[in-house]
Amino acid sequence: MSCKECKSENVNQFSSEVAVHFPGLDGLKNPIVWVFPKLKVCVRCGFAEFTVPERELTVLKTGKAVKGAAVLKKSTGSRPN
Question: Average pLDDT for residues 9-34, to the nearest whole number?
Fold first, then answer.
């Protein structure tokens, strides 16, 4: 496989963990979405790419946690009694 950016053949695959945050201040109200993709990295130019799994992609589309998705919900700031 060649790099989509520089066309180099020097592309390696790595394990990764990525925390995806929604943009802007309003994004702080949404869950952080965790994905653990195989990351393809061009070691010549640094271009990287990965695919977001369907469940986590649904969270990114809707801004709401779904069952089985790897998300970190924001705390309401209240303390339990």
Answer: 94
